[in-house]
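Board notes (copied after class):
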Amino acid sequence: MDTTWQTENIGKNRGLLNGTIENHECDPQEDCPECRGDGRCVKCDGHGDVDCHVCHGSGRCRDCNGRGKERCDECGGNGRCRVCGGSGKVLCSKCHGEGEVWNGNQRWKCSKCGGAGYAPCPECSSFGMKTLRFGFGTSANAKGSGKCKKCEGTGELVCKTCHGTGDCQSCGGSGRETCSHCHGSGNCPKCNGTGKITCRRCEGSGWYQTFNVYEAKSYVKKWHYISAEHLEEGMDMADKRPVYKDIYKKWKYRDTVDFDRYEDVRKKTDADFGTSESFNKFEKAYVQASDASKTTDTPYSKSLKIGKVPVTKVDFMLNNNNYSLYILGDNSVVMCDNLPKTIEMYKPSFFQKMKLLLTKKKRHLSYIKLAAYIFQCDGKDMSESHVLNVFYNALNIKPEKKDLLKEQLKKYNSDMPYETFRKEIKSLFSSKKTLTFAWQCMSVDKKISQQENDLFGKIAAEYKLGSDEIESMKKFAAKYSMLSDDSLVNEYMRS
């Protein structure tokens, strides 16, 4: 027998103690807590403006520090051309600075630089570039300036932040900005400069009360016991039949019990259970919970709720295996240790297995044809059939071939005579599972039409079975309906 319990705080009761209420006079106004009665804005001290948050009161541009200029990023501030280093000249690309070039076994003056060995820098002399378009030696006036073309040799550029003014752009060089707390008024925004607000204790009424309060915590102690531990999980979901639900013990003071219905409750449980064991277990669990919780509040009542859960055990045999399940409570909660995953109705011989293996592909397609034929007997379109979709997915047919198969199945879903259709599914008659499959497809919506009954009779006639065996087969078909889609398909499609 397993017994568990828990203590739960379900709330607090609060109230005023009689004789403790007193009235007190009060000033309807009190000093403003923000400015402490001064009335001035605490951020700007009443000035209405504060130091600029960008330049911190300096008034200077933060990037150039008021100079209006910033270092040229092209030359690094030295003013020299970055290609020629300020010389204005670069080596001739033809003679590489020698002034002469070899022509066979003789040296000739370089025609490109005129024997000078260098040329005007193309980076810092646009004039030289234009003049020397067809050769460096065509103009003696062509020369490089040696200056950085971006800053023109000054080493500085106009500051992009202040555009050369040197002033902070946020405050315009004043170093001050409007106070965001008082919006420039200089007054405390909470009291509007008066230094006073309405008294928070008396809310402006001129008087207030004091009193003492009491507080009592309420607890509920829950426990349960169960003799069958393997059913404990299902007990929480089962509807219990009430045996007793009421207050059975109440305290007037800590040491004085106002009333005690112990005997009444025990008689009630004895009459219902035939033994007082259940109530004794309850009392023992309650005492353990009270001792373990170590609550300091005085208990004022003890409530009791006892219920019983009726349990029905069902034993059954399937495929020579024994199984058990339990039905709990009035809402029929079912618990079981295990259930069969597959149902073996017919066990084929070795030769039958070989035949089934050789006709596997044909049988798979024949099952789909039979499902489509059965569905038209019920007056429905095959696109509504759940069974067909399950078999489509199990066959792993490619989308284009699946569409082609559906087109072929439309003729089986029409009003085709059974004699013609029988030839299309002849591979199925090597196994009695065909009967199980047919009946399950027919009974999927719980309503079997006369046309479906006639079709089933024709298929059953192929096996020459007795009525008892056919009824047994129908019951197995109902068992198959308990399987998942994957298990169901596997049962029919495995070799």
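Comment from the instructor: The radius of gyration is 51 Å. The CA atoms of residues 79 and 438 lie 98 Å apart.
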